[in-house]
Amino acid sequence: MVAEINLDYLAGFVDGEGCISLVKRKARKQGYSPEYKPVMIIANTYKELIDKLQSVFGGAIYPQRNRNPIWKARYQLCWNNYEVYKLCRLLSKKLIMKKEQAEIIVAFYDNRPEKKNYPLPANELERRQKLYERIRVLNKRGLK
Questions:
Q1: How many domains, in total, are found in the chain?
Q2: d(Cα 89, Cα 75) in Å, to the nearest integer?
């Protein structure tokens, strides 16, 4: 087990085994705006490590079903909304591969209107959609 879990360790783990993204959900009610929710997820089969990371950085642990019964059990450590923002602010200077995704999450929160207006103004919806689209491009799998 790693003796010291710190931000540098978490940054390396997020870069290698993690995902930072914005999830878009359709409006729940007519007249409301779609919701954009920041998420950060890391996954691993070593439960003790996931537990240690959670004890230091919070989040929620979810066991994942395996598609193949001979595979080891795997676990996801997930953060949502403001927790993601706080972690991205701390990690953005330490990340390498996921640095731009972290900066998008920080921009998502730092530039939000102070007052919650529903539906959101068109310029705010456009800003959020652009951030969502950019992070999707960055997280796209496969050959570029």
A1: 1
A2: 25
Look at residue 144 and tell me if it is in a domain: no
Tens of pLDDT, residues 94-126: 999 999 999 999 999 998 776 666 677 888 889
**Residue the block writes with tokens 């570029």:** 144
Domain that holds residue 37: 7-139
Is 32 domain-assigned? Answer: yes
Per the CB < 8 A criterion, the answer to whether 88 and 105 are in contact is: yes
Residue 83: CATH number of its domain: 3.10.28.10
Q: Which residues contact 56 (CB under 8 A, 6 or more apart)?
A: 5, 10
Each residue's pLDDT tens digit, 31-64: 678 889 999 999 999 999 999 999 999 999 999 8
**pTM listed for this prediction:** 0.87
Q: Let me know: does 17 contact 43? Beta carbons within 8 Å.
A: yes
Predicted confidence (pLDDT) at residue 1 exceeds the cutoff of 50 = no
- How distant is the alpha carbon of residue 97 from its chain centre? 14
Domain contains 14: yes
